[in-house]
Amino acid sequence: MNVNLQTILLENEELKFLSEYTPYAEGGILSEFEEEGKRVAKALAQVNTQVADKRAKRLLLLRGFYFLGVLRGAEAYRTVVLDEVKPEHPDADPLPFELDEVCTQLFADGLNRLSRGDLYRLCAALGV
């Protein structure tokens, strides 16, 4: 395959537009967001990570949404590049979303080690 860098390197505006190629696009309906949220909740349940505080649970959920967004962005980028390089390709289904059990537990352990005050300050700083 002959790759053209001008084809695969997207400009800033093109990168911002990648969300249009995701299951929950900018301007999408609430039920699409709910479905993505269910994917995050399922992934968290599968790693069975435990935290002691309800605010820490919110941070775990926030972290899960972050990594789902990374995955969806990568999928969208792949779709755009394939459209340019191989326009006849079929659209791929969204990848199953999974969290790494060890990394998620390390994050949870860090949250569990925080004092209540530090956890509160972290949540406040993040707007949670």
Helix tally equals: 6
Strand content: under 5%
Low-confidence sequence ranges? none
Distance between the termini: 46 Å
What is the string of helix and strand elements?
Answer: HHHHHH
What does this structure look like?
- With 128 residues, the protein is mainly alpha-helical.
- It is 66% helix and 0% strand.
- It is built from 6 helices and no strands.
- It has helices at residues 5-8, 12-17, 30-47, 54-85, 101-113, 116-126.
- The radius of gyration is 18 Å and the shape is elongated.
Could you name the key traits of this structure?
about 130 residues; mainly alpha; 6 helices; about 0% strand; elongated
Task: Itemize the secondary structure elements and their pairings.
Layout: H1 5-8, H2 12-17, H3 30-47, H4 54-85, H5 101-113, H6 116-126
Helix pairs in contact: 3-4
Brief description of this entry?
This protein has 128 residues and is mainly α. The chain contains 6 helices and no strands.
